Amino acid sequence: MTFARRLERLAMAAGGAARTVAPSSSTAAADAPPPLPAAPSLSPPGLSRPGSTLSSDARQRVEQLRQQLQALLAADRPASARPVPARPVSARPVPARPPTARSDSSAALPHAPPPASRPPRSGVRMSLAQLPFVRRDTATGALWQRSEALTGAHRIGSVPLERLAAAEPEVLAELALDPRVAQAAPSGWLFLDTETTGLAGAGTLAFLVGMASLDEARGATLEQLLLREPGQERPLLERVQERFHAASLIISFNGKAFDRPLLEARMVMNRLPRLPERPHLDLLHVARRLHRDRLGRCTLKRLERDVLGFDRGPDIEGSEVAAIYGHFLRSEDASGISAVVAHNLWDVASMLGLVGLYGQRLPPLAAPDLAGLARTLLRAGALQEAERAAQAACDGGGGVEALRVRAELAKARGDAHAAIQDLERVCAEVDDPAGRLELAKLYEHRLRRPARALEWLERGTTESEIDDARRRARLARKLSLC
User: Fold this and answer.
1) Residues 423, 407: contact at Cβ < 8 Å?
2) How far apart are CA 298 and CA 158, in angstroms?
């Protein structure tokens, strides 16, 4: 119950006591806040006021309580009168150009501004003109655009940007398990990332679109499009369509499930043609295939830290982005948008670094990641390259996963002895029922040793009871013929 409502009830209960009970001293009367106006009665017509039955002592006590609540309400009023702000961040403008590459192999792009949960209380505001965007008038409205050129000398963590131009489309196609990627010329690669007002729904907007492509100087050109207000969405979408039509390959991080479907929905809402079909390299899928055994959840920030080898520094959380844009629309304060722009720039730049790393034939990855690479190449049918990766993983201490994938490759090329050697090492280190089943199969069918196969079955496998009984019976018949 609010103070005002309590005062109202106390006034009804006092029944005019405020006019008859005097302050205890002249000092108290001077310090007390001015009395509030009498609250109108909330009783239905015809009912008497309950205060008329109170005794004199009770009325005096009610009046003291009323004065205390009145003082509390007066003290609380300035704070409660302040509007509750939204949740944008306090941020400095994004630098117009990133600094030159550093020798410590850390990222050479500008650090994101520190995050904050609320707008700055100091009153420091930032206008849209202070952001590094240029207004371009189009036939359908104003487009707020920003371009940033990165030379090949820049580094994204430990990866020089010049490696991006040397990335092999065939390698990326194998990691994507999509042969169409191999036909995409690097000059037409389009990196894509969006910042949105929500996660789903017809009303969700992409208010910031970050894109990048390779340039002729073995570097990259980054482009960002800002939606100044929802009514200016059409020119932004038309620019995205223009970039899609010129692209040979779309590269994103979870863009297959989120970014592209969202942009498709906005095209429909604005009665624009659908985006053209292009091969799509989703780096989230590639990262999970290579790094999930070591990293678990493959977020972009975690890949930056544990794969690319850098920390972007203070940054906003993705959950804050929508609130920041809402504050910008209500107040025209662009201080929070500056942090979102830097966040988006980092996301796009990190994708550039990942493609530069993944596009090498045998990238410098941790041993467990090389095991994931070998397994992915095995799925793609690139057996020779998979064996190289598996051997590098085993040599680097990749553990049982590296041994498992090397055994699978040995089995695929028909080398049963090498496969059995690796699987027996795996089963000696960990409890692996699937490995024991593979050993039983190899001993039975490849080496024709039913007794050894039965020994591995006795230790327990993943086979169903029916299939296990059939295998045992078959092995028993083979033993009886020996």
Assistant:
1) yes
2) 18
For residue 153, the model assigns a pLDDT of 87
Fold of 367-481: 1.25.40
- Answer whether 406's CB lies under 8 Å from 394's CB: yes
What percent of the chain has pLDDT above 70?
74
**Domain covering 128-358 in this structure, CATH number:** 3.30.420.10
Instruction: Enumerate the domain spans of the chain.
Output: 3-81, 128-358, 367-481
Measured between alpha carbons, how far is 320 from 316 in angstroms, rounded to an integer? 7
Mean of the pLDDT values across residues 387-403? Answer: 96
Q: What is the pTM of this model?
A: 0.73
Sign of CA dihedral 445, 446, 451, 457: negative
Torsion of CA 289, 295, 297, 299, to 10 degrees: -90
Residue 289 neighbours by CB distance under 10 Å: 20
| pLDDT tens track for 276-331 | 999 999 999 999 999 999 999 999 999 999 999 999 988 888 889 999 999 999 99
Q: Write out pLDDT tens, residues 176-186.
A: 999 999 999 99
